[in-house]
Amino acid sequence: PVLRLLEAQLQDQRRAHEEEMETLRNQVDLMQEELEKQQQAFLQTLQLSPEVQVELGLQQEITRLTNENLDLKELLEKLEKNEKKLKKQLKIYMKKVQDFEASQTMVPVERRPHERNMQVAVQRKEKDFQGMLEYYKEDEPLLIRNLIT
Fold first, then answer.
1. What are the DSSP calls for the chain, one per residue?
2. Residue 83: partners with Cβ closer than 8 Å, 6 or more residues away
3. Which residues are in coiled coils (predicted)?
4. Measuring CA to CA, which residue among 94, 100, 82, 73 is closest to residue 145?
5. How far, in Å, CA of 103 to CA of 111, rounded?
6. What would the pLDDT profile of 34-86 be if each residue is shown by its tens digit?
7. Which residue in 69, 67, 44 sits closest to 56, CA to CA?
8. Cα–Cα nearest to 57, from 45, 66, 67
9. How far apart are CA 133 and CA 92, in angstroms?
10. Distance between alpha carbon 98 and the CA centroid of its chain, in Å?
11. Spatial CA neighbour of 104 closest among 92, 90, 91, 119
């Protein structure tokens, strides 16, 4: 019984190995065909006049850039969709914070001793500001977010 089990496992492994080898052979064959096509296209391109070679090169570059632009547009759409989702979540959380703050104002002051301590920590020195605000361009989104909140 143990010998038959080991023999069956060995046959399964052999079969899996042969299938994997066949898959790899097929991949190699496909790669060789693709290489031959590229070599033929390259030889044909060399036989063309320089003007036609330049035009063909430009067409290939235009195709490549078009595909790249399509990929970037797809990425942009995905990011815009994510941005909308995050904005909706932000609105929900802002609403929850407002509701929480409103519920805190309803609680009697004697039951909120920790809040008085927080107010002390938040107090700031009054400063006299003159002129315009100076900031780095990369800090602009953070500045805007802080102004809004």
1. -HHHHHHHHHHHHHHHHHHHHHHHHHHHHHHHHHHHHHHHHHHHHHHS-HHHHHHHHHHHHHHHHHHHHHHHHHHHHHHHHHHHHHHHHHHHHHHHHHHHHHHHHHS-GGG-HHHHHHHHHH--------S-----GGGHHHHHHHHH-
2. none
3. 3-103
4. 94
5. 13
6. 999 999 988 888 888 888 888 888 999 999 999 999 999 999 999 999 999 99
7. 44
8. 45
9. 31
10. 32
11. 119
Tokens (6 digits) for 128: 């006299």
Owner of token pair 């909706």: 88
